[in-house]
Amino acid sequence: MNSKALKEQFPILNQEINGHPLVYLDNAATSQKPKAVIDAVKQYYEWENSNVHRGVHTLGSRATEAYEGAREKVARFLHAEDASQIIFTRGTTTALNLVASSYGPAHVGIGDEIVITEMEHHSNLIPWQQLAIRTGATLKYIPMQPDGHIELADVEATITPKTKIVAINYVSNVLGVVNPVKEIAAIAHRNGGIIVIDGAQSTPHMKIDVQELDCDFYAFSGHKMCAPTGIGALYGKKELLEGMEPIEFGGEMINDVGLYESTWKELPWKFEGGTPIIAGAVGLGAAIDFLEGIGMEAVAEHERKLANYAMERLAGIEGLTLYGPKKREVGLITFNLEDVHPHDVATVLDSYGIAVRAGHHCCQPLMRWLKATATARASFYLYNTEEDIDRLVDGLIQTKEYFG
Ligand code: 7TS
């Protein structure tokens, strides 16, 4: 994979920040967009824009074809059985809340258990916390090893026949660990429960096969994988989605509306009330074409190499604390530099044109577990190079000197 050539396809990356060529290392927050995606959205607005599923006119059919075509692409990308199992949402957060609000109260009651981990992003933690509070269920946490990984023996010990839902991220946005979600799914199923996978940090970086994982629900955001903001999706097993009630009511999702009762469209539209995010879906479809053109195995391999190169180089900086496992599968590294506040680290790095994230990364329980108030994080994508890592290392050495 030629990441230097790929970088050329991302117009935003070709600029200077504070007098230095931009090094964008905040991809776990959001990725940049290639020209192919920007052009697809522009083309949509210039030639196809209309509302979907209602216009008899030509633009109406073009928009509907573009929107439903994008759904087919998402289904193929995740290897779903059928496109009707792909519900377009605003992103991971909305997808997870849909499951918690619709599937949750119908299947979870007093004395039941919901199992999660302390490394969840707030959007895969608070919805389950709320569900537990509202239903009288118990929220249980799978213990984590000192480097943040999970042992299957602990999963076996935590999940019981009372466990109705297991919700876990595939890849942690702070620790960079890849969780054994396929094995966890099997344990959940053996106990009569279901698994919900937060795929926000996995979908952009590796090949996903929801059938092979045998997951019940899978959520992701488009904006972390080259697509526009405001679009993502929920995949669900057909029989589960069919048994669920919508949580948003209005136009587009109805079959027949009476004065006192109404009926819903079939999947996936019963969950897509109101005018959907059509241009976003078109952009997501273009992002999938772009990523498939490179190949997800190649993306994963590139990031693995980059992350391990970064771990090696960062380990050479005295006073740098690295969080998470030593060996890396994905390109995401969280750290702290001596007692310099991570916001100060990020500010100095920015003065050298290097963008990293600092803060609690929407993982306050994990920060407490790490005994850190905040951390800095560098996260890579297909357009990052070893030179970018070298610039980060140089920037951190400068930061150390600045505060030293
Ligand atoms: N789950 C994980 C694991 C995430 O990393 C994020 C976003 C979300 C869920 C929520 O995704 P959204 O698109 O619905 O907002 N993570 C981050 C991050 O690490 N920095 O900014 C956003």
Commentary on this structure:
The structure is a single chain. The protein is of the alpha/beta class. The protein contains 14 helices and 17 strands. The chain has a seven-stranded mixed β-sheet with strand order 4-10-9-8-7-5-6, with helices on both faces. β8 (194-198), α8 and β9 form a beta-alpha-beta unit. Bound molecules: ligand 7TS. Ligand 7TS is lined by residues 28-29, 91-93, 121, 123-124, 169, 173, 198, 200-201, 221, 357, 361-362.
Question: Summarize this, please?
Answer:
With 404 residues, the protein is of the alpha/beta class. It is built from 14 helices and 17 strands.
Key features?
single chain, binds ligand 7TS, 17 strands, 2 domains, 7-stranded mixed sheet, 404 residues, 4-stranded antiparallel sheet, Aspartate Aminotransferase, domain 1
CATH superfamily of the largest domain: Type I PLP-dependent aspartate aminotransferase-like (Major domain)
Name the bound molecules: ligand 7TS
Beta strand %: 15-25%
Residue windows where pLDDT falls under 50 for at least 5 positions:
none
The rough form would be described as: globular
**Architecture (CATH level 2) name of the largest domain:** 3-Layer(aba) Sandwich
Instruction: Give the spatial strand order of the biggest sheet.
Output: 4-10-9-8-7-5-6
Number of helices: 14
> What number of domains?
2
Record field, number of beta strands: 17
Oligomer: single chain
- Output the structural class: alpha/beta
Main pleated sheet: 7 strands, mixed
Helix residue percentage: 40-55%
Tell me the CATH topology of the largest domain. Answer: Aspartate Aminotransferase, domain 2
First-residue to last-residue Cα separation: 39 Å
- Class of the largest domain, according to the CATH hierarchy? Alpha Beta
Rounded average pLDDT: 97
CA-based gyration radius: 22 Å
